[in-house]
Design a protein that fits this description.
- This is Pentapeptide repeat-containing protein.
- This protein has about 240 residues and is mainly beta.
- The chain has one helix spanning about 225-240, and strands at about 45, 55-60, 60-65, 75-80, 80-85, 95-105, 105-110, 115-130, 135-150, 155-165, 165-170, 175-185, 185-190, 195-200, 210-215, 220.
- It has a 16-stranded parallel beta sheet that branches.
- The chain is elongated, with a radius of gyration of 19 Å.
- The chain starts with about 45 loop residues before the first strand and ends in a 6-residue tail after the last helix.
């Protein structure tokens, strides 16, 4: 049987506290910490090596070094699964549900996860490019290690998500809603925050914070003093302030 240990708290749990609520940058004394997934998968059955099926149901399976490139698993459900070293070039997983699963060493370009749901998921050491996750829902997700280029999270909803020791090149958060999201030793290059809504988003531990658009949407996030200094020219330009010596 496949089981997992979650160690979850109540729906509004997390460290910190403070006053205020809602999106839009209410002042509070401490940022609430994201809750991480705690997964232990065992007794997994090996995937039979066939192709994914639309609306398929995959429960307690291990996909090891599977070539899923170009396959169509739109609307499929993955529960208590481990995907290790799989190729996902242009794999169609539109509206898929990935629950209580660990994804390790995925590689590919153009993976379609638009309007998908990821809940209690660990994504480890991924090497991905052009991933489509617009309109997706991510809850209790840990993205650790690896590099993702051109991640499209437009209009997505992220709650209790941690990006840790990974590199995100030109991620697009346009119109997304982020609550209790942390960036820990994570490199953000040319991030697009246009129209984003933030609540309890912690950027202080980001290794690099480079925002190409939407810097005025940082209300609801917490940054470090050094990050504020780095962002000062962008903030000044956004506010129409001229800085002259």
């Amino acid at each position: 049987m496949v089981r997992r240990a979650t160690g979850r708290t109540g729906e509004d749990g997390g460290s910190g506290g403070g006053s205020g609520g809602g999106f839009g940058g209410a002042r509070r004394t401490a940022v609430k910490a994201a809750r991480r997934p705690e997964l232990r998968l065992y007794d997994l059955r090996p995937f039979d090596g066939g192709e994914l099926e639309p609306d398929g149901d995959y429960d307690g399976l291990e996909f090891r070094e599977s070539d899923l490139a170009g396959q169509d698993g739109g609307g499929a459900r993955f529960l208590d699964c481990a995907l290790t070293g799989c190729a996902v070039d242009e794999t169609r997983l539109h509206q898929a549900r990935v629950l209580d699963s660990v994804l390790t060493g995925l590689r590919g370009v153009g993976t379609d996860l638009a309007e998908s749901t990821l809940r209690d998921v660990e994504l480890v050491d991924a090497r991905l490019g052009g991933v489509q996750m617009h309109g997706a829902v991510l809850e209790r997700v840990l993205v650790r290690g690896g590099k993702i280029d051109y991640l499209n999270l437009r209009a997505a909803r992220l709650k209790d998500v941690v990006f840790e020791s990974c590199v995100l090149v030109e991620p697009d958060f346009g119109g997304a809603r982020l609550e209790r999201v942390e960036f820990v030793d994570c490199v953000l290059k040319r991030a697009d925050l246009t129209g984003v809504e933030l609540k309890d988003v912690d950027l202080r531990a980001a290794a690099e914070l480079d925002i190409s658009a939407g810097v005025e949407r940082l209300a609801g996030a917490v940054i470090s003093p050094s990050q504020l200094m780095d962002l000062a020219p962008v903030l000044a330009a956004q506010m129409g302030i001229r800085v002259e010596g």
